[in-house]
Fold:
Amino acid sequence: MKKRIFASTCAACCLLALAGCGASGADGKTDSAAGEATGWTDGTYTETATGKNGDFEVTVVIQDGNIASVTVGDNQEDMDKGGVAIAQLPDKIVEAQSYEVDAVSGATITSEGIKSAVAKSLEQATK
Structure:
């Protein structure tokens, strides 16, 4: 009897865990806290990012409620590491319409700085 109760409990937990992996809305989008596009206020938002070699500005342009562009300003990041993140992440963020993209290997600090600045910009765009 105890084995049956245990097995039933395990099965229920597995089902609940799998249900949590599904999309939260009919369109598959979640709220902006998770970084998904939900119709941000159009405008240009600039935040400061911290990279491995110092701070730099990241500008996010919202157009028609979507992320239209992400640009990184003047910086002191190494071209072979942080520079790769600066070259790749903005396009990935625009494509995903989210700051929740994978960091560039070997450029984690710069990647996280860019993602954090974009997240702050999107917070501004939701107010």
Notes: The beta strands are 43-51, 54-63, 66-72.
